[in-house]
Amino acid sequence: MSSAALLSSILFFPCLGALVILFWARISPAMCQKVSLVCSGLVALATFSFLLPGLPWSFAPYEATVQHGFALDWIPSFQIYYYLGLDGISFPLVVLTAGVSFLAIAASGTIKKHAVSYYILILLLITGMLGVFLSLDLFLFYIFWEVVLLPMYFLIGIWGGPRKEYAAIKFFLYTIFGSILMLIALLMLYFASDLTDPRLEEFVKSDTIIQQTVGSQALEGIEARQADDAVQPLHTFNILALQKIGQLTDQFDEPLLWGYSLQWWAFLLLFIGFAIKLPLVPVHTWLPDAHVEAPTPISMILAGVLLKMGGYGLIRICYPICPEAAQWFAYPVAILGVIAMLYGAFAALAQWDFKRLVAYSSVSHMGYVVLGLAVCSVYAGGQVDSQAWAMGMNGAMFQMIAHGISSAGMFFCVGMLYDRVKHRQLDQFGGLFHRMPTFSGLSFGIFFASMGLPGLCGFIGEIFVLLSTWKFSAVLAIVGSLTLLLTAGYILWTLQRVYLGFEYHGPLPEKLSPATKGEISILGVLLAFAILLGIYPQSLFRYMEATVTQTADALAERLSAKEEPDEQQAQLRIDPLEAPADTKTLLVERVQP
Amino acid sequence: MSFYQLIVNAKWESWASTLVYLPEIVLCLTIVILLLLRLPRWGSRISSLGIALVGSVIAFVLSIPFETTAEANPEAATTAQPVSLLQEETSPNPPDIEASSEETKAYKQPGDTIFSGLIVYDGLTIFFRQLLILFVVALLILMGLTGIPDRDSGADVFTLILGATVGFSLMVSSNHLLIAFLGVEMASVPSYVLAGTLKGRRIASEAALKFALYGAGAAGVMLYGMSLMAGALGSAHLPTMAENLAQLTANGVDDRQLVLFLGGLMILVGLAFKLSAFPFHFWCPDVFEGATAEVDAFLSVASKAAAIGLLLRFAIGISGVPGEPIEAPAAVAQATSTEEAKNTFDILAISQTEATSLTFAAQADQEKTKLEEKPVTDPDSSVVPIQDLIVFLIGLMAALTTTFGNLAAYGQTNIKRLMAYSTIAHAGYLMMPVAAAVALLSKDQAGAQEAVASVVVYLIAYFFMNLGVFAIIALLRNRIRSEEIEDYAGIVRESPGLVVCFGILMFSLIGLPPLAGFLGKFWIFAALWEAGLITLLFIGGLNTFFSIFYYLRVLKVMVLSPEPDHRSPAAIPIISWPGLYVAALTVPVAILLVFWEPIRVYSLWAAADLFQ
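^ inputs. structure came back:
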């Protein structure tokens, strides 16, 4: 089975399910759920089968390169290709997406209103999310990024709580504002990129996808350029090529506006776009509203997968393409990350609404992701310490997966309680342990995983991030560590208020029935993964470590080269801030002959 | 060249021109038939809609260029064999025409001018003509489905629509200011009447009157501007005017500069009125509210397309010449105008004697221009300051128009008024790439071509989006007798298919991927970036953000709000003729992105001739 067929069928299989539901005359809500379950189950099975060794399509661990990569012509005259592939960064997120989506559909039994539209939208949403993680073409990535937006708007806006319209439009406006900035950055990068740069020769020759698409054209251009002939620039949307351009050439260093370079601006615009999705303080305010109003399964997807799109964008696009800007922004970004961690935790402490609390804990946890990525200017012996950075990146990636599991579980717990007693007021719970023992036990596991208890999945990511931060800035690491304390505080306090105590004293006590088998199995699966990742983190690291380390190495190399310029580069690059003047001289040189 | 030969040649030129002008002639014939059919008694039994449809379909078929390979192979253009249909048409020619030289017999190919240089026949003309005629076909079908106009006034309305289309077609292909004015008037006068189609409704009459008054004023200003420019430049033939203007600027500034500036500004006013650009947009919401939704569709798509076509022709025509280097006064003496200039009256000779050697501030722009391959204009040419002025004016107007349109749409409660402001906003988007194209003339020809191509693509997307939205408005009006947004509440429960289509069209109007609107917008933004118009790019992006809210509000009312108590049933199943019509317009919007490559190739082809 070719990669193209395999990945495309995984990607578009949910759409097929949506079509089946659409054209199935007078389908019952239960049947809709069954069809969606089968559909997303098959997708999840297919992605999990990549984990099994020995299959012809299994995903090879400890492998840094793109696997199953393929590109088909889409809009060749704009250098846009249907380019999909898996590597260590995207693969864990694809598996997470498939898994969480399946569980979310399994948890959708309570949705009875407009079931047909609900399941069609959720299946389209799955395609969009998978597409974001699978596509390696920046344009394709952007399309899928936006495709996610529309179903989500309706899923919150139609099936949400009392303030659903407000929450949906807020979510929509925030995200679209970010995506417009992203679109501008995308155009900037595209028009500044040029594959006919001699410094890219090795990459052009070695990359099979480039060879297959624009290879000959690029090589001709390189030869012509080496012979000092005039060449039309060959732009590209290929994310990996853009990364190489950012890391090996100075194409993105040209001054753009107010003395800052093109990559500085591109980084800023992209970062805002991704930070909104992540969400980072101060652009996080859509998240609590969206979470509180969204129905339970949608909250699971929102926290479990959608937030990861922001982190993925940072790791995949923002940092590798704009390394120098990343270094320039290291401290602001790291400080924002720490602020998000602390602010989220404090805000969670202050909540009376159970769901809002979980939402703010998401803000706090995603702060780790940003912090882990930001620690790029760690120096060891005059060199950028790629090891520490790789550690931070690995931690960030691990944190994303771990949070995907634990937050989905937490939202499911909240949803279960809300379905029963129709309220989420923390001060009106208590004593659930007596009434729902199995459920309470599983919830404890999930909440402890979120708290970062050693032995559960939350611990690894947080500790990796904080360790790498220590080398970057001890102050930030110490301040950041306070979050651990606060997290323990709000999680334990929540557990105490909801599950412990003598008896339940809220409304509708008679509705507090024990968890059903379905509910237990959903929570059980999530908890099983939380434990597995906690005690055997290598099960995740083995897939992503190589790619992440390679990315960090490449970036560190670029930044180190910049710190220690050799004779030729000395006059061109002294300081990223003074780049404008240098490039101007370069331009003049080019123009003069 | 003997007198006889002159006649023969002229005749051949006319024949060749007529051949490529057949679509318009067919439209005119259809109009005549429609009018004549009212005379005989049995005439009323023949459906005027049918005749109009047949006529416009024939016109569309004829508008497909018969020598599509010509642009790929310029050598073949002169020797190409015409297809059999055209052979028949040319048979009345006297046989001795064979004796004349090869070139004179050449059939008109895309890129040529026809009717002695009055009209250009190029890729852009072909595109606009196809778009407009196809739109008329689609609109006629819609009118058949909605039953407006009724049987009595059918022939009148169709006559007006076809007549206006001929006018639009003249506008987009004009190479001469008089033709442009003729086209504008020919398009405008039927539009005024169309706005008042609903006889007996006060609001419709008011709309028509308002439209006519505004239109007459704008046309007057435009005509005055044209006469100023033509007087100052000694010609109304666009390429000649451009050459003369370039010479004039090369020689330095003289007293005619102010006249030229005023003239250009006045022409822009006329065009801005047609485009409903800020601050000449006041007629638009009132007219849209008063006219029927079908007419609104016509005004918002066909009229805007034609106006943007004319703006392109004028902006690039007047500044898209190589120009003269400013520091070489010697070049002025031997400056040659284009071939067509020989046909026109040239009074420029006076100006050349009084030329001063003042230099314009073009050198300042030299640093800004990135040296790329094959610019149309040299970066230090005398036309660069003119181009800069045009870019500034159009860019400013585009920014104001889009922003105003989007912000004013917030407060609307009537769907047609809302769509009027949306149309204004989109007119602003459409003007942006025109500015980009002019800005790129001195930098990068390929880039300018891309910018023009982005207009083409945006118009294709806009065609489906706006016609679809107005079709839904018209169909719903027939059911619920209302065009107020609040009366659409909860309509999704009655006709889900229609609302899904409406949603797709709305999201496409916002410009969200993967819908057609995004395709156009992305391309426009790309052109703006390449032209270095970063401010405009940011304004465009910000406006996309502004526009979300009011489009979504309509959708929100349709989907989320509870139904009102009293409303006639609004059910329009998707499996019915009206439903299928809407679906047929929506499907292209949804899947256009997949077929981007052929569209891109087509649009680049359409834009190519403009720069040759």
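The two ends of chain A are 54 Å apart (CA to CA). The interface with chain B takes residues 73-78, 80, 142-143, 146-147, 149-150, 154, 157-158, 164-165, 169, 172-173, 176-177, 180-181, 183-184, 187-188, 190-191, 230, 232, 257, 591 of chain A (CB under 8 Å).
thumbs up if we can close this ticket
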